[in-house]
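Predict the holo structure. Ligand: BJW.
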Amino acid sequence: MAAGSDLGILKEKVAKARSLTILTGAGISADSGVPTFRGADGLWRTFRAEDLATPEAFERDPRLVWEWYNWRRELIATKNPNPAHEAIVELERRCQEFWLITQNVDGLHPAAGSTKLSEIHGNIWKVRCTGCGVISENLEIPIPILPTCQLCHALLRPHIVWFGESLREEDLRRCDEALRACDLLLIIGTSGIVYPAAGFASVAKHVGALVIEINLESTPQSDLVDLSLQGRAKDLVPLLL
Ligand code: BJW
Ligand code: ZN
């Protein structure tokens, strides 16, 4: 848990920020009951990323990959945004120049009401056609396996960025803009291992922003950031308001 004086300073910095950028990861949704990827109860303890979260895995066994996504969609559908997601919506409302970058695919930020955001790893409630590339919302649980495109009948895939795939150009451009413009970057609940998001703290530091991390534990970025607050996102983020 952070010292009270740290929180006081941070609250003031947040209130005075000219341009605020926030990067979130699975830790913020852990407080809603969505499993993280790494750590003791993380998804990668039970499932191998190479078998499920790569384009090669989908090519090899699309049925297995869709079964995994159906299981996750079923689980996420029962979860709701928590006070940390809600506090971020309020920060967006208060700060004129604001951008939220989330690695989360669960859709809990938009569900809470965030509008200025990039979901850089995609969204589990969207599907993309492997033939014509059309992206559409799909809230079916379960999705009938194997789903096909109504337009061209090719196989649909989850609209998710898997390992080895590039992030969308438009998202990368928008994130870069937000990171270079901000005077305060808040990094919440990410292990800071997966690129390119793992490099975002350095970009913001490079342009002179104050960088603050909120996490249950230290990360590879902890030595680089200006302040590292240890605790649960749902407890700490609302204290910034
Ligand atoms: C709490 C908490 C609470 C818990 N309160 N905190 C440069 C160097 C080396 C490798 C690469 C590189 N550039 C690219 C790569 C390859 C790869 C990569 O980074 N690999 C690393 C593993 C080394 N990156 C890519 O492939 C990316 N593409 C790309 O860069 O394209 C160009 C390129 C390709 C290949 C080579 C070179 C360039 C794409 C990455 C896509 C990531 N996709 C995933 C899975 C999608 C599947 C799905 O969700 O359906 O996205 S991986 C998984 O990790 C998921 C997450 O978004 C992502 C990040 O995880 P996150 O959010 O940090 O979660 P955890 O579980 O790791 O951590 C949770 C944290 O919360 C912990 O710290 C806890 O302590 C904390 N916590 N409870 C506060 N209550
Ligand atoms: Zn199609």
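The radius of gyration is 18 Å. The chain has a mean pLDDT of 95.
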